Amino acid sequence: MRFRDVLETAHARALAETGLPQPIAQLLADADQGIRRGGRYTDSGDLTRLSGRQTTSLAATITTALTAPAAA
After folding, report:
1. If both were cysteines, with which of 2, 15, 69, 71 could 25 make a disulfide (CB 3.0 to 4.6 Å apart)?
2. CA–CA distance from 64 to each of 25, 54, 69, 72 (Å)?
């Protein structure tokens, strides 16, 4: 899978072309832009405190899943 950077307007248009209503397509494209700019990043520890569990990075989760023995 390749990453292809697209403008927010092109992203919203592509989402709308798949059948999403235009306002939803724009909302999702805008949210993705915010994430790209780091708008969802935090190192506050809030999630750990709220869940009562230690958080795990995506990379560590994938590594664990790939190295775990297969379920029978």
Report:
1. 15
2. 34, 15, 10, 17
Instruction: Report which of 11, 13, 9, 33 is spatially closest to residue 21, judged by C-alpha positions.
Output: 13
Half-sphere exposure for 9 (CA within 13 Å, toward CB) = 0
The model's pTM is 0.57
Report pLDDT digits (tens) over 41-59. 888 999 899 999 999 988 9
How many residues are listed for the chain in this entry? Answer: 72
Query: What average pLDDT score do residues 27-53 get?
Result: 90
Residue by residue, DSSP assigns 44-57 as S-HHHHHHTS----
Residue whose token pair is 């592509």: 14
Domain residue spans in the chain?
A: 1-40
Provide the Cα torsion 20, 23, 29, 31; round to 10°.
-120
